[in-house]
Write a structure and sequence with these properties.
Blueprint: E1 4-15, E2 18-27, E3 30-38, H1 43-53, E4 63-65, E5 70-71, H2 73-77, E6 83-92, E7 100-108
Antiparallel strand pairs: 1-2, 1-6, 2-3, 4-5, 6-7
Length: about 120
């Protein structure tokens, strides 16, 4: 899947020791999910998602748990129904290293060029 994607459902969850945003992205080419676990190393992906969706970056009031970098459900709900461009690349499957699976690598403005890596033969 490449091109513009419309987020159909967004919800937040505090799994284990990290906060995550669960995304379901869809367009006429198909559907893909992304579990965006928020850590210090992945904050850039959250910023890219916010910029692509044209949602303001979270304020201090939107951060409900600074230790887990948890965002309020109200902030996360702002992404519902937004259109974004999605960068998808194939990665080795965690459960079966002989297989590849498409995974969301990042988010871009829906009018920007979107990269797609076809399966290697």
């Amino acid at each position: 899947m490449h091109g513009n994607a419309v987020r159909r459902r967004v919800k937040s969850s505090q799994q284990r020791n990290h906060f995550e945003i669960r995304l379901k992205l869809a367009n006429q080419q198909g559907t893909i999910r992304d579990w965006l676990v928020i850590t210090e190393n992945s904050v850039g992906k959250v910023v890219a998602l916010a910029n692509a969706a044209r949602v303001d970056l979270p304020s201090d009031a939107d951060v409900v748990d600074t230790a887990k970098l948890a965002l309020s459900q109200g902030y996360v709900d702002q992404f519902i129904g937004k259109s974004v461009g999605v960068v998808i690349r194939n990665e080795t499957d965690y459960k079966d290293p002989t297989q590849e699976r498409p995974r969301v690598q990042g988010y871009v403005d829906r009018f920007a060029a979107v990269l797609y890596s076809p399966p290697l033969t």
